[in-house]
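hey so u asked for the seq, here:
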Amino acid sequence: MQKAQDIFSYRPYWAKRFGVSPHLPMTRGEMDELGWDGCDIILVTGDAYVDHPSFGMALIGRLLEAQGFRVGIISQPDWTNVEDFSRLGKPGLFFGVTGGNMDSMVNRYTSDKRIRSNDAYTPEGLADKRPDRCVLVYSQRCREAYPDVPIILGGIEASLRRIAHYDYWSDKVRRSVLIDAKADLLVYGNGERQVVEIAHRLGRGESVDMLTEIRGTAYTLKEIPEGWDILDSTSVDKPGKVSPHADPYAEKPACHEADPVEADTGRKSVRTVIRLPGFEEVKMDPVLYAHASRVLHQETNPGNARALIQNHGNREVWLNPPPIPLSTEEMDRVYGLPYSRLPHPLYGGAKIPAFEMIQHSVTIMRGCFGGCTFCSITEHEGRIIQSRSEASILKEIETIRDVSPAFTGVISDLGGPTANMYRLACKNPEIEEKCRRLSCVYPGICKNLETDHSHLVSLYRKARSLPGIKKILIASGLRYDLAVLSPEYVKELATHHVGGYLKIAPEHTEAGPLSKMMKPGIGAYDRFKAIFDKFSKEAGKEQYLIPYFIAAHPGTTDEDMLNLSLWLKKNGFRADQVQAFLPSPMALASAMYHSGRNPLHRISRKSEAVYIPRSPLQRRLHKAFLRYHDPENWPVLREALMRMGRADLIGNGKHHLVPRCQPAGMQGAGKPFRTQHVRPVRKRGKS
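ran it, structure tokens below
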């Protein structure tokens, strides 16, 4: 894989002499105290500013400070006027605009498109402190405040909207956020490497228009530069010889026999750009949208990804290949920066729920090679695992112990996107560089994947042995199909690192939806449960698994949800909260939802159709199946069971799913539900 410049090897910017600030300033008064006459870079964020490495604006801000730049923070500004965006003055280099740790639409709306009553990233959890699609709004206000200052978009909201994307909340395909925000540059994925290079080059006097070749960025242009080989992938129609398409999970896909996107791997040209179907085409044609989604996801490996281009009217959106992952040494230095690990003093004693939850957690790795189609982690962080060193992690635990005023001796999590992918990677770097698989663990675990959990076991043992540490809990999502390959790890986990309950996510029990999620079968859960229960018993602990499931995912039928409901009842699970599928921008499952096609395979006009539970009533029914025990759901479940020919599940016995009567005090209470035969309605025809 291409070697990248160490992000800490740049010559520091001249403002390095101002030193380290106790917290990045949010007011002019704080800037005066630091001796600043202005900021070089101002980060505008939809989150409250917490100086903790789990908050993106703090991590990027402290990294830029370490490079010598003066960085200010404008947090949750009043977007109804421009004044709040000029409160720190004009930045010398650029505005960095982010929606925060969460996509603003996911943050504000439920999967049923209802406005949430709280916001975990706002003081006291107050809602309505950020606008819809706040990256767009913030960018417009920054441009109004200082028209000549470059605007750089970043964070997950921008990252997942870097090309034309399906927007669930408006139920339409929207343009790249780069176009609508009228920004100069978009940083996608983990942004450290890109942001550092951008800052230093602008600091040296380069124009933002010159920053066109930085990996992990997108920008607009009017025409393709000379010297590029254009690989056209704007159509799914392939006249001529029909060849069998390659298995996307094969170790060596027959790329030359598949679609034209995969036909370039043997070329010597390293300056190839793939033309995606344009915005107008994918907006009008869901099949082309699914095709474009498939192409983009095939170009996510930094070792072999090529540039992408997509037309938006009179402009082209150009996506450079993904950034080179950070090395362990770089990760260590990023997480070792002088964070105060506290909310900005401006908030006084206000509680910020997200901070309360993560203040004593430690990020040990990034990325995920699971490839779950409904998840945004891979699209944003990539599938190559980036791990910190053991020494760096242990040092952060000691820092928490020594500086956090609320620390009680319990580390709430050692993890990241997953709990147990720490230091896991492909056994052969050459294979990893060429691989185009979307997942290293589906439909089975790749034989080239290193699955040794011994590094994680060693880390757990050393972490809990530190003086002053009473307990190390693991709260990140556990990939149990990997865990079963290491019984020693499961024993370590069950014996020392579970606080009574362990949350894991089988997501479903049925093969249909699981195949569209790229998740393992429920048998993997059963194997893990047997091992977990065994070691919990040996440790003398009564501990339970709490499985999470998704309702209404593409590919899920009513029968699938009924079978899942029966599995829940058989195993004695009663879910308190249920999750309905939310089509986040750019996810493969969102492409399924919008197009009704399966982008896990080659897309054509006759390719596999995916069943989509789309209507509000059906989504409500699927959620009701997950909460079969809730009397509020019994009426809709009774009607569904009758319609499905499963009236045998209505009754008061142990084998029944729902009772015949509603409890006293509820609508329909005391009236037995009649399970009479329902005849199909026949249309009248001419005699």
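The CA atoms of residues 304 and 434 lie 6 Å apart. Confidence is low (pLDDT under 50) at residues 239-269, 675-687.
lmk if thats what u needed
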